[in-house]
């Protein structure tokens, strides 16, 4: 694949960006001999929703956990809100919010009590009752943590992550286990947090979620960031030919074209009106993503 | 640091400590399993063994009177050692600890909360045991300065067992596996430490093993307040050895603290 413009050249070392919410240069983390993160560079701007994509084991979670201060690194520089997470103290932690994948779900405290306790650790927390409303658990204020359904528990996790009014929010696969309607409502919540000025780093396996939410997406494979782009441009998607499909003489036909409008007009003229089973498609985010993460294997296949 | 704006002050340590203490006390007393397991287990033990073994020990001492020291020891061990090992292991494996580590909560607040919880649970458990002992078996309560001995033995024993419990929690993968590991261990220690039977009836070599651990010393210290001075002759040294009780429990506090500092983890091992 000959991706141009936006791909990240490895090894090029720019200074850390002090104005960025997150700035990473040459990050390295090894588990034994195996490098999980292998020279990763990344800048996340203040106020954006950034989605980090990548297959399991690509170094996504390791990178995020180093940014959260949960994990040590073996090399490189990291700044989150201008501070190295490895030495971030209470004041720094007050600026970040973490929504965990596991989440504390076995509590005998009510949702409101859990949020009230969490709020008591922060300097300038949001009102716990308002946060419950915000995540759609307003009617569950008195319900104990352990009585919640999976989706409700996930929303409680989000409430715990945002009650401290963080400037930087980490969301690890936030909508796993949500039904489609709950996901839509959750996306609205995340957008409203961005509108309040929160920077959000999102990891997800759902490409439609990345497409719907993210201002920019980054793809990690084998411990490196291979590309950063707005969702519509990832993997040269914006310039990729459209695929036109139709039915002619009882056979399914398809054609790649850079000018689908002209192509369909020609087709309509040739077939005299309505084109049977017509569709025009661009490669989806999933199509380009799957191509990107499969790249080294694809090179071995003769074209 | 150019990007740092003026931050409002973080809440004081005292207020975070109060919050954690409230959380820990509510979490314990609202969980029926933990209340039954910790508070009522020694009560059932007292009622059950007291009913079966209702014989005279000598010097007019009934078995329930002798047994009070043991059952209070079991209550303290349950409130501290087992409680800490099982619940902290559970909080580590379900992500509660990881979640707390990502907040500006000062780490000391977590331990302050646990200490308050252990104290509350210990007071309730020991209180219920003494009340049942008096009401059901008419046991003689300690008197005068014996209360002082009772208090320091219980507090020092609870401190040692709490620290060891926190350290042991790091060995288990989950609350469930911690329970499977620590419960038989605690029962075994209690058995060879003269909690369920007269210590003088425990084989000598097992007495020697038991004297390496804090449970035996806690039970011995408590026997000194529940039994007449004449029965001190039945102890291995022929006296209550209160000085050695304090020394061994104190050493276990130091050892437990060192182990805690070296082994405590906020994140699950499987989580790397």
Automatic annotation (TrEMBL), chain B:
Keyword Nucleotidyltransferase applies: no
Membrane topology value: Multi-pass membrane protein
Keywords from the named record: Antibiotic resistance, Cell membrane, Membrane, Transmembrane, Transmembrane helix, Transport
All residue ranges annotated as the ABC transmembrane type-2 domain in the record: 33-267
Highest taxon of the lineage: Bacteria
One family name in Pfam for this protein: ABC2_membrane
GO CC annotation: ATP-binding cassette (ABC) transporter complex
Cellular localization per UniProt: Cell membrane; Membrane
Gene Ontology molecular function terms on file: ABC-type transporter activity
PROSITE patterns to which the protein is assigned, alphabetical: ABC_TM2 (PS51012)
Transmembrane feature ranges: 35-53, 65-90, 111-137, 149-168, 180-199, 245-264
Gene Ontology terms: biological process: response to antibiotic
PANTHER family: NODULATION PROTEIN J (PTHR43229:SF2)
Family statement drawn from the similarity comment of this UniProt entry: Belongs to the ABC-2 integral membrane protein family.
Name by which UniProt lists this protein: Transport permease protein
Organism lineage string: Bacteria, Bacillati, Actinomycetota, Actinomycetes, Geodermatophilales
């Amino acid at each position: 694949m000959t991706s141009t413009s936006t791909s990240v050249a490895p090894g090029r070392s720019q200074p850390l960006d002090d104005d960025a919410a997150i700035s990473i240069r040459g990050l390295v983390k090894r588990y034994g001999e195996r490098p999980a993160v292998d020279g990763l560079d990344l800048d996340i701007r203040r106020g954006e929703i950034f989605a980090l994509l990548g297959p399991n084991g690509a170094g996504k979670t390791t990178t995020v956990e180093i940014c959260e201060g949960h994990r040590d690194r073996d090399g490189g520089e990291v700044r989150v809100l201008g501070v190295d997470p490895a030495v971030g103290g209470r004041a720094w932690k007050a600026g970040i919010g973490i929504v965990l994948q596991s989440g504390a779900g076995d509590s005998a405290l009510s949702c409101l009590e859990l949020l009230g306790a969490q709020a008591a650790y922060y300097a300038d927390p949001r009102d716990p009752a308002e946060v419950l409303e915000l995540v759609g658990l307003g009617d569950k204020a008195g319900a104990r943590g352990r009585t919640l359904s999976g989706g409700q528990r996930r929303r409680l996790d989000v409430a715990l992550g945002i009650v401290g009014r963080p400037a930087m929010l980490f969301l690890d696969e936030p909508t796993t286990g949500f039904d489609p309607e709950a996901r839509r409502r959750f996306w609205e919540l995340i957008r409203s947090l961005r509108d309040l000025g929160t920077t959000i780093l999102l990891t997800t396996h759902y490409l439609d979620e990345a497409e719907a939410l993210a201002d920019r997406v980054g793809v990690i494979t084998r411990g490196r960031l291979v590309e950063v782009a707005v969702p519509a441009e990832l993997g040269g998607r914006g310039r990729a030919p459209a695929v036109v499909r139709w039915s002619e003489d009882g056979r399914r036909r398809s054609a790649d074209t850079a000018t689908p409008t002209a192509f369909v007009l020609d087709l309509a003229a040739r077939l005299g009106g309505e084109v049977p089973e017509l569709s025009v498609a661009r490669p989806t985010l999933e199509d380009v993503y799957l191509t990107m993460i499969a790249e080294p294997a694809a090179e071995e296949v003769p074209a | 640091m150019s990007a740092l704006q003026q931050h409002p002050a973080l809440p004081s340590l005292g207020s975070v400590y109060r919050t954690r203490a409230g959380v820990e006390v509510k979490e314990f007393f609202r969980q029926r399993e933990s209340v039954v397991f910790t508070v009522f287990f020694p009560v059932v033990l007292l009622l059950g063994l007291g009913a079966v073994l209702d014989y005279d020990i000598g010097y007019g001492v009934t078995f329930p009177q002798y047994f009070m020291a043991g059952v209070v020891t079991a209550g303290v061990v349950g409130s501290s050692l087992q409680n800490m090992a099982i619940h902290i292991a559970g909080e580590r494996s379900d992500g509660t600890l990881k979640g707390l580590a990502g907040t500006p909560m000062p780490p000391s607040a977590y331990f302050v909360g646990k200490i308050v919880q252990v104290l509350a649970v210990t007071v309730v458990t020991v209180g219920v045991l003494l009340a049942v002992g008096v009401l059901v078996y008419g046991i003689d309560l300690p008197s005068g300065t014996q209360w002082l001995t009772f208090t320091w033995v219980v507090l020092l024993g609870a401190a040692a067992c709490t620290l060891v419990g926190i350290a042991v929690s790091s060995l288990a993968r989950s609350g469930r596996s911690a329970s499977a590991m620590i419960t038989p261990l605690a029962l075994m220690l209690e058995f060879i430490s003269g909690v369920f039977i007269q210590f003088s009836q425990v084989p000598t070599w097992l007495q020697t093993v038991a004297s390496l651990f804090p449970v035996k010393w806690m039970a011995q210290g408590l026997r000194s307040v529940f039994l007449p001075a004449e029965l001190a002759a039945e102890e291995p040294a022929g006296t209550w050895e209160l000085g050695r009780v304090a020394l061994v429990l104190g050493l276990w506090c130091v050892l437990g603290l060192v182990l805690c500092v070296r082994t405590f983890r906020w994140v699950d091992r499987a989580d790397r």
